[in-house]
Each structure stands twice: as structure tokens, then as C-alpha cells.
Amino acid sequence: MKSLATLIAILFMFLGCTASCRKDDDTIHAQNNHVGKINPLTTKMKITIGTTVFTATLYDNPSARALSANFPLTINMAELNNNEKYYDLPNSLPTNSSVGGNIKVGDLTLYGSNTLVLFYKSFNTSYRYTKLGYVDNPSGLATALGNGNVVVKFENN
Predict the structure, then answer these.
(1) Nearest by Cα to 132 from 49, 48, 63
(2) Taking the chain, what is the end-to-end CA distance rounded to the nearest angstrom?
(3) Mean pLDDT of 26-50
(4) Spatial separation of the C-alpha atoms in residues 13 and 35, rounded to whole Å
(5) Cα dihedral sign, 110-107-41-149
(6) 49, 79, 102, 142: which has the fewest C-beta neighbours closer than 10 Å?
(7) pLDDT at 16
(8) Higher confidence at residue 141 or residue 39?
(9) Which of 61, 63, 65, 89 lies closest to 75 in space, CA to CA?
């Protein structure tokens, strides 16, 4: 009987340890789910197209930091594929490209090491991009960008 009580006590102790360890493991697992994902910076940026101003969030990565170091930046973005505007920057930025997958309206990316891309339509792609940020509320972005080339100003907020 005494050994049964000892066995039950050991079992409860083991289960208690496992439960408390499980909580830590869940925390670590939850934190690891964000490894490789991109966290937004605490500051915002402004994108001005004509008289329309959009607020955007830059991701916390070397590429986005290198881009924002060039702000304010006023550029003439060209039309491509009826879903994006692009501009070839004079200097390369750091890259960490991944397959685009589901591109969303308002995504700001880097194609290659120096092509800045602002998407105004959502679609799936197998092209590789470095994610830079996104327009917080892209409602009206396609209208503001219009057809053809457009002058866009990027600046810190």
C-alpha cells in the first residue's frame, strides 16, 4: 500500500512538472511562431500621391530601415501589370526575399535588390520579394495611383 501511495505521489509530481513545463513550452512555441515573421516598427510612414496621404507601417528589417534612411523620397513610379507601381532605386538595399504568395493591396516590397514596388491589387504570385511594409488602410489606393506613371512621396511620419 505504501509503494502504491509513493507511486501515486511520484505520478502527481511528474504530471505537475509536465503541466508547468508545458506552459513554458507553449510560450516558447508561441514566440517561435514569430521567428522569421516580420514585426512592424513602432513608427509609421506617410505615402503621398497627389493630394492623398496614406499612412503605412514599415517592417522591422534591414531592408525597410535602409529604405527609410533615404526618406523623404519623391519618385516617379511606373505602371506594371495593372496591379503595381515600381521604381528602380539608384542603390541596392539589403534583401531577404521570399516567395510573394498572397500579395495584398497596399503591400510595399523590394523586387531584387533595388526595385521598390507598391501593389494596388491583391493576387497570388510565385515571384520573390523582400517585404518592406504595408499601407495601413489601402482604401482608395488604386484610385490615387491611377493609370500610368505617378509621382509618389515616401516620408517618415
Answers:
(1) 63
(2) 73
(3) 56
(4) 33
(5) positive
(6) 102
(7) 45
(8) 141
(9) 89
- Number of helices and strands in the chain (H, E): 3, 9
- Residue 90 is given by DSSP the state S
Distances (CA, A) of 106 to 11, 111, 113: 55, 15, 20
Hey, what amino acid is at 70? N
Q: Please indicate whether residue 29 or residue 84 has the higher confidence score (pLDDT).
A: 84
CA angle 97, 99, 101 (to 5 degrees): 135
Query: What is the pLDDT at residue 100?
Result: 80
CB 102 within 8 A of CB 124: yes
Instruction: Tell me the C-alpha distance between 131 and 98, whole Å.
Output: 8
Q: How many CB atoms lie within 10 A of CB 26?
A: 10
Flag whether pLDDT at 99 surpasses 60: yes
Task: Please say whether the dihedral angle defined by the alpha carbons of residues 102, 93, 81 and 135, taken in this order, is positive or negative.
Answer: positive
Q: Which residues contact 107 (CB under 8 A, 6 or more apart)?
A: 117, 118, 119, 131, 134, 135
Q: What is the pLDDT of residues 29-38, one digit of tens each?
A: 233 232 334 4
> Is pLDDT above 90 for 91?
yes
13's CB contacts (< 8 A; 6+ apart) are none
What's the pLDDT at 3? 52
Question: Which stretch of DSSP H or E encloses residue 112?
Answer: none
